[in-house]
Write a structure and sequence with these properties.
By secondary structure, this protein is an alpha+beta fold. It contains 26 helices and twelve strands. The protein has helices at residues 25-31, 50-61, 73-95, 104-116, 118-124, 130-138, 142-153, 197-216, 224-237, 257-263, 269-274, 288-300, 303-317, 324-339, 347-358, 360-371, 374-397, 403-415, 439-455, 503-520, 541-559, 571-595, 610-621, 628-637, 643-648, 655-661, and strands at 11-12, 70-72, 161-168, 171-181, 253-256, 282-285, 417-421, 477-479, 484-488, 562-564, 567-568, 624-626. The strands form four sheets. It has a four-stranded mixed beta sheet, with helices on one face. A four-stranded mixed beta sheet has the order 3-4-6-5. A two-stranded antiparallel ribbon has the order 2-12. Helix 17 (374-397) crosses helix 20 (503-520). The protein is globular and about 75 Å long. The two termini are 38 Å apart.
Length: 680
């Protein structure tokens, strides 16, 4: 099921980026120091630019490889998980000659081999696409296009609207169908509207890219790039911005399917849904005005243009599984132009990542069994409860929140649940047909499985045990509908969690991450959901006004930070993650302080006391080098602030940081008490 812009996503900690690998599995963990002092830059000043001070040495030693657009802690660990651990698992499976059809071992090994079988891919050319191209060419009306678009969405080919299934925001125990906007090749409407030279160049390159792809395919349409850019620009004009999409109230419009169909009266949405095997009397619409405007746009657009657009989406969706010329051109635009990545990874590395992307859970089952010790699960559980206790104490001390709202905040905090490492139960993926020499068909089979799985959830109880990330993922998330935080095994390793490090480093790393996820339950979005995960106001009007006043100031603060010349951070887009970072740091610092009560003060390590090492732990989690192209893309599309500003952004608001490093008024990393923003 393809829904390009979800109405209310879970809050993930960060986007994944690629990095380098370490030596071996167990021996490397012993060699990783809590904080490597060679990462420091002694010429920088902690109170002027803490990122440069704590990470300047690391950045000099770790230039961005040609295969990456970002290079940092998340990607280093992600690459190790994939190219050491997953690679080891896959190698064992492919070495075995006795693989029973339908088993996870057979699926993983055969898919991996099908991705590596470039000879078969080249020999087949565009033949796998021919049935779809024939259907597109045969379309003779908008109604027929609606039917075909529904069929194509089952295998992940987007159009201007899409469906998704998740818990009802106002009845989180039951799954419901959602409708949302989509269909923009550049990902976000600002790419079609901004007039700065870099964005104008992206649009110019996009036109050239589409023209090139059509030329490679020997399609005969004239000026396809310009035609598609013009259509998508008109489409973008009517869509919500990524900031507006953050409003769960504005984007929650429940209605009958019959009324929904009336909004798109010239586009047969009933057939569109029927072709996706969707059967429901009600759904939640993201934006009624968009649908009405879309109906007029589709009606006014020549059918030839809509067919051209559909053909483009088909070609773009499967470019990575087609012959080398298509794959390379797709990489040139979406990776090099859009993100500054200079070269593709080796085919073997890509095969591992593709296998992980398609069969992540079956692979994760094997990963968890081999690489995640039970004692780490127990330790993380203890840390989560530690953060929960401190959060409760912080709530009690708030001066801007009334007692009645505090009572409800405690109720929500108490109701928080968590998942650690890997699922307690595993799904059955045996129906996915995988062959060692048919990459395209393998992708189709997995897509159809995923679509069927989603459709069958409509109207049924939400499975509270389901995971939205694979165990090997280097990330974490908060799901407001389940009121839960989730920490996959993939992130519970250095530098986030290092069982051999001092407490200060771990509190600045994984415990600040835990605090970050806890805070998402109380940020500008999460705070609109109650203890049962329902979109329901539990605040007094005065308390909400106080909270909004604080977040408005924090939005304005980040609006003033320039990521690149002329490119400032969007404080409204990043406010949820920024509040979570500020809250996570606060909670982790006081959890660490609480853990030291009644104990002898820890001795300094490498010349740094425990307070200083706490903040060094935070800085090393976010150390990163980024291409300018990737940075521009992030500022326009990503709800996370750039890594440097996740380090430097919240610290001036923490008096604890100022005390730890002796910062004084006038230092960039030290705000006056009146300018500091304290929320939790």
């Amino acid at each position: 099921m393809k829904l390009v812009a979800l109405r209310y996503p879970v809050f993930a900690l960060a986007l994944l980026v690629a990095g380098c690998k370490k030596e071996t599995e167990e021996s490397s963990a012993e060699k990783v120091p809590g904080f490597d002092i060679s990462s420091l830059d002694s010429t920088a000043k902690a109170c002027e630019d803490f990122d440069s001070y704590a990470n300047g040495g690391w950045k000099k030693k770790n230039p961005i490889p040609g295969t990456e657009s970002r290079w940092g802690a998340f990607g280093i660990l992600d690459k190790e998980n994939k190219e050491v651990r997953l690679k080891s698992i896959i190698a064992e499976l492919t070495a075995s000659k006795d693989r029973k059809k339908g088993t996870e071992e057979q699926q993983i090994a055969d898919y991996y081999q099908s991705f590596l079988d470039t000879a078969a891919i080249e020999n087949r050319g565009l033949t796998p696409l021919k049935p779809y191209l024939d259907k597109i060419n045969a379309v003779s009306s908008l109604k027929e296009l609606a039917a075909l678009s529904g069929e194509l969405q089952k295998v992940g080919i987007p159009t201007a609207i899409g469906f998704g299934v998740e818990g009802d925001l106002k009845n989180s125990k039951i799954n419901v169908l959602y409708e949302g906007q989509g269909g923009l090749s550049l990902g976000e409407k600002s790419y079609y509207e901004r007039t700065d030279s870099n964005t104008v160049n992206v649009r110019k390159e996009f036109v050239a890219h589409v023209d090139k792809m059509f030329s490679l395919a020997a399609f005969t349409e004239q000026m396809p790039g310009k035609t598609i850019l013009d259509f998508e620009t008109k489409l973008a004009k009517h869509q919500l911005t990524n900031v507006e999409l953050r409003d769960p109230v504005k984007t929650y419009n429940k209605m009958s399917f019959e009324d929904f169909a009336k909004l798109l009266s010239d586009f047969d949405v009933k057939t569109f849904a029927d072709k996706q095997d969707i059967k429901t009397d009600t759904l939640i619409v993201q934006n009624k005005a968009y649908l009405q405007n879309l109906n007029a746009l589709l009606k006014a657009t020549p059918l030839a243009t809509l067919k051209l657009y559909t053909k483009w989406q088909l070609l773009s969706r499967f470019a990575g599984y087609l012959p080398k010329s298509f794959d390379q051109e797709d990489f040139r635009f979406f990776s090099t132009v859009m993100r500054g990545t200079k070269q593709q990874r080796a085919r073997v590395e890509r095969a591992i990542r593709s296998t992980d992307g398609l069969l992540g859970m079956p692979l994760g089952k094997l990963f968890s069994k081999k690489y995640f010790p039970e004692e780490d699960k127990k330790k993380v559980s203890e840390m989560i409860e530690n953060v929960r206790a401190v959060y409760g104490e912080r709530i009690d001390k708030l001066t801007w929140m009334s007692d009645s709202t505090k009572t409800k905040a405690h109720k929500k905090l108490k109701a928080f649940t968590y998942k650690i490492g890997y699922p307690d139960k595993w799904k059955d993926y045996s129906s996915i047909e995988i062959a060692p020499d048919k990459l395209f068909e393998n992708v189709i089979s997995a897509s159809l499985y995923g679509h069927k799985e989603q459709v069958e959830k409509i109207g049924k109880d939400v499975d509270k045990k389901e995971w939205l990330m694979t165990p090997q993922t280097v990330n974490a998330y908060y799901n407001p509908l389940n009121n839960e935080i989730v920490f996959p095994a993939g992130i519970l390793q250095p530098p986030f969690y290092n069982r051999n490090a001092d407490d200060a480093i771990n509190y600045g790393g994984i415990i600040a991450v835990i605090g970050h996820e806890f805070t998402h339950g109380f940020d500008d979005q999460g705070s609109q959901f109650d203890d049962e995960g329902n979109l329901k106001n539990w605040w007094t009007a005065a308390d909400r006004a106080n909270f909004d006043k604080l977040t408005k100031k924090y939005i304005e603060y980040f609006n003033g930070i320039e990521a690149l010349p002329g490119f400032n951070i969007n404080g409204a887009l990043t406010i949820g993650e920024n509040v979570a970072d500020l809250g996570g740091l606060t909670l982790a610092y006081y959890a660490l302080q609480k853990s030291l009560e009644g104990k002898e003060e820890p001795a300094p390590i490498d010349g740094f006391n425990w307070k200083q090492r706490f903040f060094l732990g935070w800085a090393q989690v976010w150390h990163m080098n980024t291409t300018n192209e990737a940075l521009r893309n992030q500022v326009q599309t990503d709800p996370h602030a750039p890594a440097k500003d996740r380090i430097n952004g919240p610290l001036p608001h923490l008096k604890e940081f100022q005390i730890a490093f002796g910062c004084t008024p006038g230092n960039k990393m030290a705000l006056a008490d009146s300018a500091r923003i304290v929320i939790w």
